Every structure is written in C-alpha cells, then in structure tokens.
Amino acid sequence: MPTALITGASGGIGAAFAAELAQRQHNLILVARSEDKLQQLAAQLRQEFNISIEVIVQDLTVAGAANDVFDRVVTAGLTVDLLVNNAGFGDYGIFADRPLAKQVEMLQLNIVALVELSHLFLQEMRARRSGSIINVASIAGFQPMPYLSVYAASKAFVLSFSEALWAENQDCGVRVLALCPGGTESDFFKVAEFPTFLSASSGQKLVPASEVVRDALKALDKNGSNVITGEFSNRIIANLPRFMPRELVVKLVAKLFGGKN
Fold it and tell me: Over the range 138-172, which residues count as b (16 or more CB within 10 Å of their CB) and which as e?
C-alpha cells in the first residue's frame, strides 16, 4: 500500500487530498500546525478506510521544520511514495503597509519548506526510481499581482521550480506536478484578509477542494508538468498574460484587486 505525505493537511485542499488518497487506499502522513484538526481527520479516515495514518504536528514556517518532518518519517521507518507540498498562505494589501514578519513567514512556508521537503524526499525517490511530488502553486503564479505581491511571486517560484523538476526527473521514474488552482473552497481568503468588496465583486465561482484534488491526480497519472483546475476562465487568466504587454497586465490586475484602496 503506497504512502502519501501531505502538508497543510488540516483543511482545504490538504484535507481533500487526504480524503481522496485514503479512498484510494494510501497510507497517510498528515502534517500541519493544528493537532486537534489533524487528529480528528486521522480518526475519521482510519475508521472509514482502515488505513495507517501518522500525524506530525509541525509549524513549517519555522526554520528547520522540514528536516524535523523528514527525520520523523525516517525514524518511523516509512517510505513516502507521494509528497504533496500543499501548505501555504497569502496576504492581501499594499506590500509596504503589511507586516514584514508575515511576508517572511510566507516565503518560509510557500517556498523554503517546499524546496527542502522536495529535496529531502526526491533523493530517495530517485534512488528507487519511483515516486511523485505534487507542489501546490496557483493561477496567481502566472503573472505579477499587486496587493498579493509576495504570494503571487512565491507561487510563480513554485510553478517554475516544479516544471524544472518535472523535466529533470523524466528518466528517473519520478513524476513532478505543479497544481495551479483558481478560487477554491477553503480558508485562503479569510487568512489572506481579503476585503469584503473584493470577495463580493469578483464573481468567481469557488470550486470544491475535492474537485481540485481529482483533477490534480488525473494530471499526475498522465505525467503532466502542470495543471490549471477549476473553470475554463482560469486557463484564460493563466495564459492571457503571454499575449499582452507585462505593464498592461500588471495595471489591469492592480485595478481589479485594488479598486477600493
């Protein structure tokens, strides 16, 4: 029975990955900060699917946390067949007005922890010539985004990094996928402190996290380098900037996201 490690597993896309993979008879390693939510999810999935679940309570915004997670996995004698780097968050507002510490935490979680976990587990996957990594990026990673500047830049990194790993590992039996969701049913907008006017006026349909996960696993099975999930408009949003002057794209995004600032 394969084993999947999922970060940010306590809710949203992470919890949806846990539920879907449990249904597909994967043993799970669930990583997040919220012990109560992790234990509740683990108990539910153990009872429903009779699988083995390891819970690791870890704050990946802390330097060195990724190594601690890896050490826990090794000590438990577990082999990770699928790594899902899902943990991450955003922060809405003018960059200069937002707390710097929060931006640094975002980079630590969205980029540094993801790179560290990818490196640690990828070495083992390459050695045994099997394994998969799904890195959760975003359609925000396809263009600069004023008022989400650090978040969008971090997701652009995840997209570029993941596609490069996909190419590097084509002959090693290891698959790497950049998952690029649009608006998804989760706590993202609440955590990012999106203003009410923006949430109400965007008109974007929020997609169930379970649907995002199924699309991701389907793309992984096909050895895709990236997948844009959700409405067809998400694919237009992601690809349109390639055919427009970058300054125009940034101005349009600024107008959309900062209209009431």
Answer: bbbbbbbbbbbbbbbbbbbbbbebbbebbeebeee
Angle at 190 between CA 185 and CA 192, to 5 degrees: 110
- Indicate if 151 belongs to the active site: yes
Residue from 28, 6, 12, 56 nearest 210 by CA: 12
243 neighbors 225 (Cβ within 8 angstroms)? no
Domains and CATH numbers, the chain: 3-257 (3.40.50.720)
Residue 91 has pLDDT above 70, yes or no: yes
Tell which wins on pLDDT, 140 or 243.
140
Neighbouring-strand partners of residue 135: 85, 178
Per annotation, catalytic residue among 17, 121, 147, 151: 151
In whole angstroms, give the CA distance from residue 186 to residue 171: 36
Lowest average pLDDT, out of 39-43, 194-198, 216-220, goes to 194-198
pLDDT for res 261:
45
Contacts of 237 (CB under 8 A, 6+ apart): 139, 142, 182
Placement of tokens 């819970």 in the chain = 55
- Contact indicator for 7, 110 with CB cutoff of 8 Å: no
pLDDT class of 248 with cuts at 50, 70, 90? confident
Residue from 187, 179, 242, 245 nearest 215 by CA: 179
Q: Two tokens at 116?
A: 């560290």
Q: What's the mean per-residue pLDDT of the chain?
A: 92
137, 158 Cβ separation under 8 angstroms = yes
Quick: pLDDT tens for 168-211: 999 999 999 999 998 887 777 677 666 665 554 455 678 899 99
For 167-189, the DSSP string reads HHTTTTTEEEEEEE--SBSSSHH
